[in-house]
Amino acid sequence: METERAMNINVMPYINRGFIPVITGFYGVKKDGLPLTFGRGGSDYAAAVIANALNADRLDIWTDVDGFMSADPRIVPHAVKIDEMSYTEAAELAYFGAKVLHPRTIEPVRRKHIPLWVRNSFKPEERGTLISQFRKPKNELLRSVAAKTDLSIISISSPEIAYRPEIVTRILAKISENNDAIYSISTTLSTVALLIHNNDVKDTLRKLNELESEDIERIDVTGDVALICCVGDNLLTTCGVSGEIFGAVKEAHANVQMISEGASDVSLNFVVPMAHVLDTIRILHKKFVEDGGNA
Fold first, then answer.
1. How far, in Å, CA of 112 to CA of 25, rounded?
2. Separation CA 145–CA 195 (nearest Å)
3. Which residues contact 216 (CB under 8 A, 6 or more apart)?
4. What is the CB-side half-sphere exposure of residue 70 using CA atoms within 13 A?
5. How far is CA 253 from the centre of its chain?
6. Given CA atoms 224, 230, 236, 238 in this order, what sign does their dihedral have?
7. Which fold has domain 137-295?
8. How does pLDDT run across 183-238, given as a tens digit for each residue?
9. What is the 3-state secondary structure (H, E, C) of the chain?
10. pLDDT in tens, 12-49
11. In this predicted structure, what is the pLDDT of residue 130?
12. For residues 228 and 93, what is the distance between their CA atoms, to the nearest angstrom?
C-alpha cells in the first residue's frame, strides 16, 4: 500500500504528462527511510512491485535468455522454449531452480492479473514467454524440469511426533529462527524430514540441539542431494503419471530419497543424490519432451 501510494504521488503525474520514468531496481526504502537491497535478481522483483503499484497493463522482464525453457539448456542441449505459462508454473520453477526470474517476481503481478513477458534483450525479435492466468492446459505431463542443488535432508526422529503434533511446531519454529529456507517437508509416524541448503546444516543442527532432549530421539543428516521439480498439466489427476516419472528416474539409477506430491496440482518434486541429478533431468526431458512421452 505504501509503495502504491508513493507511486501515485511521485510517478503517475509524470506518466500522465507523457514522460517515461526510469526507475532503478534492486533496492527499495524501509519504513525508517534507509535503503534496503533485494539481493540477487532483485531488479525483477522491484519491477513487479512497481507494475503492481501502477496497475500496469503488462510487465516485460528483459534478460539474457529467450524465456522459460523445458530444461536448463546447459544440461539439456535440446531444451525448447515454453511459449506460455501460468503464474503457478513459473513460480514453482523459479523457486526450485530455473534461473530465469527472481522467485518473488510472480506474486505482485499475480495479485492484479498483470501479464508478465520474459524476453531476451539480445534477441528483441523473439516473442519470449508469456506468464498469465489465461494459459490453457495442453495435457503435457511434463512441460519443464528444474533442479535445486547442494541440499541436505535433516531427519528428526521421535516416537512422540504422531501423538504430540506440537513437537513438529517447535522444530519448525526453532529452525525458522535462522531465517533459513526449508524447501520440502515430509513426515512419517515417528520422523519429520526437512530439506535445506548444505550451507545451513550447521546452524540448523545447533538450533535443534537447543530443544529438549526428550522430544528428539535422533537426528540424521543426508548431504549432497538435489531437489528435482517437474512441472506439467494434470499431474494430480492423470492416472499413472507418477509411475511414469519415477520409471524414468529408475533409468538414471537414482534412488528417490524424498517426495513432495499433492501440495500443488502443477508440480511433483522429489530428491535424488547429487551424483544422479544431471542424468535424471536428461532422461526425464528426453522421455517426456523430446520423444513425445506427454499425453
1. 20
2. 19
3. 156, 157, 158, 208
4. 22
5. 25
6. negative
7. VC0802-like (3.30.2130)
8. 999 888 889 999 999 999 999 999 999 887 777 889 999 999 999 999 987 776 66
9. CHHHHHHHHHCHHHHHCCCCCCCCCCEEECCCCCEEECCCCHHHHHHHHHHHHCCCCCEEEEECCCCCECCCCCCCCCCCECCEEEHHHHHHHHHCCCCCCCHHHHHHHHHCCCCEEEEECCCCCCCCEEEECCCCCCCCCCCEEEEEEEEEEEEEECCCCCCCCHHHHHHHHHHHCCCCCCCEEEECCCEEEEEEEHHHHHHHHHHHCCCCHHHCCEEEEEEEEEEEEEECCCCCCCCCHHHHHHHHHHHCCCCCCEEECCCCCCEEEEEEEHHHHHHHHHHHHHHHHHCCCCC
10. 999 999 999 999 888 888 888 888 888 777 889 999 99
11. 96
12. 10
Q: What is the pTM of this model?
A: 0.85
Give domain 2-132's CATH superfamily: Acetylglutamate kinase-like (3.40.1160.10)
Instruction: Give the range among 49-63, 129-143, 200-214 with minimum mean pLDDT.
Output: 129-143
133, 164 in Cβ contact below 8 A? no
pLDDT at 83 over 60: yes
Domain range list for the chain: 2-132, 137-295
